Amino acid sequence: MSRYVAEFVGTFVLVFTGCGAAVLAGDQIGPLGISLAFGVALIAMVYTVGHISGCHINPAVTLGLFISNKMPRKHAPGYWISQIAGGIAAAGVVLVIARGMPGGYDPAVQGLAANGFGAHSPGHYNFAAAALTEFALTFVLVITVIGATDIDAPSGFAGIPIGLALLLANLVAIPVTNASINPARSIGPAVFVGGWAMRQLWLFVVAPLLGGIAASTVYRLIEIPLLHARDAERARRAREVQLLPERPEQPERPRRSA
Asked: Which CATH code for domain 2-241?
């Protein structure tokens, strides 16, 4: 149960800080500040809940690790439920805070940092551009997660490249789609915005999941030759050990009497 709570909390923090930065301070900090909020939040959560759940806090990451056999498969449904619940709860808290500003806040009009394409894209990018952006940048994030957490990767540093990957992905994607790269991050605001956000939501679930699948597949293709090379090296060392001549036993030296 603790791993599911950790995924809920981690996703809540990621969506609350990232979407909160966009909704409450976006005009002051711009895309760079919003990207930093997402990236730094992810780094913080890797070191906060990573030892409990692995800190996926993204259904696409969970799917990529699921396919890569890098997580117990029985836990995947619970992870997805916890992540989505965390995203919805975070968006709800952001909305409550936003409604406290002068003049109030209408999520259906002002968007609550929901993801969209066409008329609902910050740069009015079309469907194809939005789909490719979400697929490609989720691929970047998930392959970074898989590689940085590999057993042969330097230990203790995974949070840094993973957080930087999300930061860079947001910098590219914010003008195109408002940067999903995470179905849970998209579902949360869409639930409160309704209308167009719910109609376009499917893209921001499907494209990141496909990006996660592609990342897992590509990393596996990279990893297999490395695994073969490691196995060959271990076999060579084992043969060398077997061929080493046994050291003759040394005769025990007589002890001097006191």
From this structure: 1.20.1080.10
